Amino acid sequence: MQIRSRRSVIFLIGAALLGVVGIGKRYADVNAKECSRMQVSFERSGGFAGMLMTTTVDTASLPSEQSAQLRRLVDAADFFRLPATIPSGAQPDRFQYQITVEEDGRRHSVTVGEAAMPGTMRPLVEWLMEAVRRK
Known about the structure:
Layout: H1 2-35, E1 38-46, E2 53-58, H2 64-76, E3 85-86, E4 95-103, E5 106-113, H3 122-134
Parallel strand pairs: 3-5
Antiparallel strand pairs: 1-2, 1-4, 4-5
């Protein structure tokens, strides 16, 4: 009976280790993107007072929760698929935004006016404005 118990324990340990290795690989594949460094440059210009607000955020210098949130916002905006310029026509006293994201050797910039900003991009802009205010 004791031999049978040892074999069962060894079998269970081996199965658990194989499961962990398999899960670990899938976890690593899914989260490899989260380990890469992302830099986001942000500029807001225009408005009634014409104040320029800028910041650059590097995920390597953020707490992991903020880094993950920034990544989710960039992904939700489908940022790398947005056109370089989103036309909005001349609108005095409105804000103009320029955002550049660099990650994994890719670099993409988007310039957009306040009125023409896609809804998917607004949470990203709001997060970046909070980053400017935290500085």
